What does this fold into?
Amino acid sequence: MKRIFTIGHSTQSFDSFLSLLEQYNINCIVDVRSTPYSQYATQYNQDILSSNLKKNDVYYLFMGEEFGARRRDPRLYTSEGFLDFDKVSQTTVFKKGIERIVSGVDKGYNVAFMCTEKEPIDCHRTILVGHEFFGLGFEILNILSNGQLLSQRGIDTQLLDLYFPYRRQGSLFDEPRNEKDLLTEAYRFRNRDIGYRIHVREE
It folds into this structure.
């Protein structure tokens, strides 16, 4: 099975970040931030990061337009004002991004999607991008700050535990709900909770 990693840079030092990449032989970082700059961790500003990665034989690729979590098209936002990940995944630019990554993996690149958030469950790199690639048959492995890996299946379990902690307990009159349906709903709930928001005018 083809695999893709995800990683959040947070505020850790570049050396710590690099050690995680070396641990899993990652040779290509795909930056999925809409804005590739960090106010609190300037070592991850695009120009500095790409230069330091190049010095360590890691290819840097910015794909904020394809996979970023902030979009200019208002049609991609819900009536509540948050970015709809399902709509984003259906855009032409997102699909072309998928094709580009698939081609890179086929060529032998060991890819990691990178964004800012420390925890994968809090970031669109996992809830949007990783989830889509998982659906295409890729093994998605989220690198945690301690160096351990959390699979996309593990993310699924976290989401179900978060939003449906009593899912295995049917009520007196109802049977427990189908877990696949619950998982689809859980991803939508997480999208709502972490999605970038715009101001929506009240009618």
